[in-house]
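To close the chapter, one final illustration. This time we ask the reader to focus less on the individual chains and more on the assembly as a whole: which components sit near each other, and how the overall shape emerges from the parts.
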Amino acid sequence: MRKHYIFYLLLFTMLSSITSFSQTREGVIKGIVTDESNAPLAGVSVSVKGTSRGTTSNASGAYTIAIERPDEVLVFSLTGAQTQEIKVDGKKVINITLVTAAKQLKDVVVIGYGTANKKDVTGSITSIKSEEFNPGVLTTPAELLQGKVAGLNVTKSGDPNAAPAVVLRGPSTIRTTGGAMEPFYVIDGIPGASIDLLAPADIESIDVLKDASSTAIYGSRAANGVIMITTRHSKPGQTRLTYNAYGAMEEVSKQIKMLTGDQLRAYLAKNNQKLAAADDDGSNTNWQKLLERKGYSQNHNISFGGASANSEYGGSVNYLKNNGILKNTSLERTVVRGYLNQRFFDNRLRLSLAVTNSRTKGNDVVQSSVLPGMLFYLPTVSPFNPDGTYKENYTRTGSGPLNPLSLINNNSIKTDDNKTLINAIVQVDILKGLKYTLSLATQRDEYNYNAYYNSQSGIYVGAGGVAKRNTYVNTSNILESYFNYDMMFGDHSVKLLGGWTYQQDRNNDGFGVGSQGFSNDNLSYNNLYLSNPSTLAQIPFDNTPISVLRLLSFYGRVQYSYKSKYLFQASLRNDGSSAFGINNRWGYFPAVSAGWNITSEDFMKDVPVISSLKLRAGYGVSGNSTGFNAFSSLLIYGTPPGNAKVLYNGNITNAIGLVRNDDPYLKWESTGTVNVGLDFGLWKDRLSGSVDYYIKKTSDLIYDQYPVSATQYVVPTYTANVGKIKNTGVELTLTATVVKTGDFTWKSSINLAHNKNVVEELSNSQFVINYIQTAQLGGKGQSGNYSQIVQNGYALGTFKLWHYVGKDQNGISTYLNSADSVINKQPLTTDMRICGNAQPSLVYGWSNSFFYKGFDLNFLIRGVTGNKILNATLAGLNNPTDSKLQNIPTFTLGESFKDINAYLISDRFLESGSYLRMDNITLGYTYKPHTESVKSLRFYVTGNNLFVITKYRGVDPEVNIGGLTPGIDNQNFYPKTRTYIIGVTASF
Amino acid sequence: MQKIYIAIAVLVTIIGGGACRNLDVPVESQYVASNFPVTTSDYTSLLGTMYANLASNYAITYWRMQELSTDEAILPARDGNFDDGGQYRQMHYHTWTYDHPYVNAIWQWGFGGGITNCNRLIKVISSAKLDSTKKVAFTTEIRAMRALYYFFMMDTYGNVPIYTEYNVNTQPATQTRAKVFEFIESELKAVLPQLPSKTNNSADKNLQYGHPTKGMAYALLAKMYLNAGVYTGTTRYPDAVAMCDSVQSNPNYFLDAKFRDIFLPSNGPQINETIFAVPYDQQIPGNQFTRFGFFYYLASAYGMNVGLSIAMSTTHEFYNRFNLAGDARTKTWLVGPQYYPDGNGGFTNQPVYYPNTTTQIVITPDLILVPPKPMDLGNTITTQSEGIRSIKYYPDVAITQATRLNGNDVPVFRLADVYLMKAEAILRGAPATTVNGVLQTQDWLVTQLRNRAGAPPAVGVTLDTVLDERARELSWEGWRRNDLIRYGQFEVDYPLANDPLSMNKDVSRRLYPIPINEIKLNTNLLQNDGYPKN
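The assembled structure is written out below.
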């Protein structure tokens, strides 16, 4: 100990003697710099104003600085914190708290290629910070935002392996391939990075860019909105360690009431029917109960990071296991991230490197057979034969004829997806205000799909086990190079952006093959070599060719602000894609917007009630090219539909011919949006909100089924840009701090959105199509019938169905035919009428947060109204005449047994889809032990989907809203769950 | 220092920006115009599209238009199952409209995938880098197939456009049926010299199987001349006889010993009497005779492990024409109590029971409708076995649940048909001719088929006998509509029990309508008489 004391004394003497060479000493000031949560801040620059004297705070936040005159001013500054200046005034110790970026971030939004102050934004952007995210067993950003962003309509089922459907401000395309209707995701500035790389606990904030003036900077893929995700990084000057974990129990929230075995026997007996001997062994099997289970899930996240004077680094590991409520369905995901930012040359050069790896393993069942089978299969038979094998009756006709328990246990689908994203950024401050950024990102996705239908499987009977395996690698390389120039002269502030992006995607590098005929099931799909296929037809190859897509863009933007009062922004982007016709590869996407911060005007000083008022308006054009592959416009030779082959010279070979007409004029769909908005705040922003009105018109809609005459073309359809679709709407968001006393705070926020969608045009002079019939749902005796229609003047998802007019005196369902007479026979397709659509007229969410001392309670109620859902599941189940072959729901007990039309899909089964749901409610307690090591501990319990108020008779009204045929429940809805979660968040 | 930064940045931008406005990405994994076709086998695959297209619809959709509209086949609904928008019902009652799914599909099959594709192939071949013998051989093959497609279109729709160029810049206009007949005749005559002849060498047989040969061209001309009265208004029976003789001039066509062998799943180039057939296989989809025309509950008795449809059958009036003692062709129908097959065309005496019962399956011939659903038999166990089922295209044990395909090749022209055509032409006035030293009278011709089938020989054959013999010999081979129209009997209906609906007997129904979608897309097309113009 003595040695150390002497050492420090010597050091101190040396140091002070050194400084004494350069200046005379008045005195020494010391102190500790902390942030607003009392954590010490390292690396804070402490300097004497007007001189070159300075020092930096150490790891404990302590500094010492010499003072020459008592009127000197100390300047405390740190990147990302508000600089403070303190007069010395004779003090010897100055401790100071700096407001770090964490607090400032509340007012910062992420726009394309940069950030902006909320005050200066002229477009329609909604920012949600991590504390406002929805809790739950969630994996995607859309689920975190569900019900919290006006204009964002998210629907999801209980399927752990399925992504939710996400629609922003209404559907603006009629294509669905490759996510053409989904918004575009940008993760930490990397456009198009996969959302599978995200662990919700790692996300700091999400900004949703809704109108074209904000999204046009992303040009060709941004017509459906852009969702910008920022992940957590260390703040300068902080070290942190956080552990987040939760455990959840999920159970099915609603089942369809089907008859028990005894009830079915009684029903049949009452109607003088009897089950066939093979279909009744005295059992009472509840198939829904057999196939469903309580799903237990857990998530663990460790996130750590630190910072030194000129670097930040950190990493996180996230593990999620989500067991679905259907047996043998689950998702397991492990995300590992690491990043390092370092600054050189006086912070003029910044180098960053970030690596993220996400491994997702999924377990699934053949949902297309399991979901209907669970309902239809007779409850009067046992799942097993007396000898223990699965009991099947392959000769039974009717729906859902395969033993559901056998379907789940004898057919397994396992996927393994590994995604790696590496991002390197070089940022150079060239001159004052001029910054250059070079970003290189590469994303590699390796996807493996394995399926085994074993020898007992009812899907491949007698095949001796069928195995399918495929593996594909998709790589995406993105290079971005851009300049930012910010300058201020007087009251004018100008920010310029100019740059280009190069992206090349190489997809489907891989292959897939199947085989069958294994001598036993023990190896599953692990060794295809040991299969014994008897013909070539039993070894099918996947037809998924490699495709390479290249995107090039040049973009520029100018943002001008006068005294932060008058704001103006303009951007232009020139995008080219190799997917489009050789004549139309390049497109221009301009945008312009303006804003007026009315509260900055002098006349507003007389109205102190209004603390902020901003009027903004913008117009821009974005393109949509998602879902196009490299071959979309080319003349392609391929095998005929169904991979049909021919016999040539005794061998079966491929026939190769024209599979698509080429279109050298194929080009981008483009969406032009006008957005007018008003942001306001009253009583010092105690009540704040915004109103937006928009008109979104998409033209050059691509449809790939324009008919052409067989006397002129080999392939009967032609892909062309023709149609027009329009969305207009209003969004309102209100946030209020209702109560704020010393210990108790109540914040409430409501968002409402109304969108009207209409298909304006489907034809032009060259290609004419009066309507597109969609949604072939099948159903007994109805194969080939369509249930929806895309037609001028109607919204996407418009239903066209038979019109049910009640039952006649014999209890038979009757319908109105096209001549308006009542018929009791099955109508013709020409008797269908338009009857409502699946688009909601209002989507709303209401969240409330209560804080009392260390407790917090928040809940979210959300819902939709005005939409319709076609309950084709109930229609199919409602079949009294076939009740000897398949189970019926309790609903059918109210039908006449003689109703031979009961199962026909008609507007009788078109139900209101409105609902109000208690989406999540959380009670938490935060404990801040004032110790060095533990900063805070929060325990919470959450309940998801505690109740839903709806008239819809199906399993759940949150039926898919995306795609070309929204709002249809056709025995394909994975039941939604009610979840109970207990979790802990610990910060160190 | 600053200057260096600027210089580097500017350099990078210039290099990067300048190098990249190039969006030409090479196509590595698809055949596009620049890398296909190149080799001879590429061309063979390219020409394969004519045959893949033919197979796709010949044995289901085209067949249904030729058979469900007659007494040979019927596909009733069963308690709403198989109502399917009325598509089968409209065939039976001749009440199809100009937007019937088959009307649309077969037009697309014959023109888009057929004739337009052939025109395109001719153009590709003519500008290809191949030696001239190959070019001639390929072009001959394409023209012969195109003539066959034109024949199907002329027979089905009658007044269709004639066009041979590609790209088709002017929309082709409707021509009269007679003009189309002339065109087909001239095409066939032009390519006949270059078409190959069948030999007795099995390598040649393999190569030629399913492809046009001289025999096929002669048989097609024979069919056209026999029907010339219907197609053009002028009969040409002596020409029909001449063409039949041209077929027979090749001794490599002769009747096979066993009738059932012609239609087994293993049929192929080894069948001697096949002149032109459409090959099918588990990998060549388009034959689902067992899926639709067999009886569901007999599947396992015939060695199949799949679920079939309870659908198609023949009418009992048609079945009653199989009234010759000992006729092997009668055994292609299943009626009455059912027994396990003996694997050789006959039956054991082991009855087939319904699963898990000891009730023998009995197929009954009468179709008794159960109102109010139209053309509906109901779906009880008893009514499911109404309707005489066919095993002519013998059930294929390789059938899988996923696709339910048969591998039996379907003949288009065979020698038995040539014999019957000659017999009919003679009865209609053409002089009988001598072939290989035998004067082939109508009795002689029909007797050849009777002998092969094990039925009594034919004496005093009349036109009606020939029609019935065609029924027995060529049932379910796609010629019934053609035969009935020629005989003026297409409008004869055999009402079903309890049937409130009846057949549309307007003679304009002898032609199918041009699809209304096509008339809208090609304004130079004219609708056939008797159908609404818009």
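Chain B has 18 helices and eleven strands. Chain B has a mean pLDDT of 92. With these observations in hand, you are ready for the problems at the end of the chapter.
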